[in-house]
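Model: You mentioned two targets. I'll fold them one after the other.
Researcher: Yes, keep them separate.
Model: Target one:
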Amino acid sequence: MGFASKIAGSQNPPPNNMSANRPGVYGGAPPTGYAGGPPAALQPGNNPSSSGNPQQQQPQYQAYQGSPAPSGGPGPSYPPQNAPYPGGPGGPGAPYGAPGGAPPAARASDQQIAAYRQLLIGTIQEKHIQSFWPPERLDRLVQTLANEAPGKVNKLMHELRVPQEVAMDIMKLSLFDVILYVDDSGSIEFEERGVRKEQLVQIIEIVAAAASTFDDDGISVRFMNNAEQGDGIRNADDVGRLVSRVRFQGLTPLGTSLRNKVLDPMVVGPARAGRLQKPVLVITITDGQPAGEPLDSVSSSIGYAVSEVARTQYGQGAISFQFSQVGNDTKARDFLASLDEDPRIGSLIDCTSNFEVEQDEMSRAVPPVYLTRELWCAKLMLGAIDSSYDTKDEKAAGRAGGPGAPPPGPPSGPPGGAPRGGQYGGGYSQPGYPPAPSYGQPQQGYGANPGYGQGYGQAPYQSQGQAPAPGYGQQYGGGYGAPSPHPNQPGYGQSSGAPRGYSPYQAPQPPRY
């Protein structure tokens, strides 16, 4: 099930008076049953945690000017901004991560526990992170989720105003250590009358709260220019204290600082030493293309990191990359598109354009979606670890025939290759993996034993009969305990002459589940 499909059914058709071109619209029609408006604390100009002093009122997020007004019958507009969330004491203006939402739920049922396990297994297999999550460790995580997840899923649904499917998918972040790599160049502070900085702070708050929902460790934050570091960041208060110590100034050494501040000390070094506890998800947020360094510094840093971790006991799956844009700089958008289309790294990363552009493109998806900022942040958090949140196929369908048009045929080119020109990200369903099943679908839905069509220890789905592309974008051959799908190529963790996988020693057989 693709991203648009997951949320389209939960949204009412946006009323005519919520045109995408109308200034002041928060960014989308609410999910069914939502009775409140956007949190006041997250409106631009009303975010006390983003700095030590109250900020001057700024213009609200405006929808992308090229976006057509979604069609739909007349309906009520948003209630007043101070309307409380339903079902909880959180009240208006509660920051992300604050108490509120639905009351705690009871322990998960056996069917829910099986669903949690299969949900996580799907990500473990897709991202090749079996070495981090052997059966006994996964079982411990699932049992922890059994006690906490039902209430926390409800809380996410209320606080982020997302449907249950998306709230459940956020559970996948518990498999990863999340690092936010943040652009703190001068343009963030001064361009667009400070709106870029407000958007940036809001993103950090949402990611910190969501990622900490199922993992109490919080996230790490590193800045491109400033030496300030944040670890164990869990909520808006933590974000506010951190950002208040950072002065936004300087250029955009995107690739150089990525390697020096994030990749070497937090990923490559620990991987070489055998000290990585979880695979790492690096989320980069920037408003511009690199400045003060060669344009290929970012791709070189990514290629270097993936090659290095592939030589360790953890394999290539030890690191995932997400890039996202704030602000409306067209050069930044073009730069991220060039990363997505780079034949060396395009299959290794996911890119999300700024909210306004994504909102426009998702309105053309099949089925169409009226994107909110919280749903955009869900795409940002999950796009690099869940292929269903990479919307190229759905955007292409919308462009080809508009809403309701039949989906296009399979994309041309090798599996995992670069997307079509001008599009972010790679396909929703990566070759080699089936689309995620619908929740509640017989045999492959939530709570069904087969989950995602296969279990640990079974051979993975084949990549449309084609061999993986060479280089550091190469997929591992076999699944958990499965033989290599290509007899002349090494399987998961095997040596192939050149150092990779578990070199210089032979990896143990992957565990069966």
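Model: Target two:
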Amino acid sequence: MFTITIHHLDGPSGLQRHVGYVHVDGEDVQIHDPEGHLDLELPTPTVDDRGRGERRRATYAQDPVVWAYNLPALLRGPYVLAQRHDQTPDWVEQLLEQPQAPAASSPGSAELIAQLIAGSSAAKEAAAEPA
């Protein structure tokens, strides 16, 4: 189990604020990215494949656990930073305890999340319809 926290860095002030997280528990991957910093189609450089097959890059669709584990190698720019935690931070624990939409690893929801992040109006309409 591990958690990746995502921070937005404000250059002039030097402040950072939490903007999302990816929580992995076994094969269950939960993504909380309300500001849309994550692109599930963008491959992460595979620094550690976690013994799940050798590849240089991994997309969410190929292996969500490897993709999530290696997010810090991708999100390390001047404005967005990702950090891996073996212990889930308290603020993420509180969010995980709240009822929420199905996790990104649920069947069919990865595509919906990718469309929502991309700003697709059709995906927003589909998400607004009752199940």
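Researcher: Noted. Anything on target two?
Model: DSSP finds five helices and six strands in the chain.
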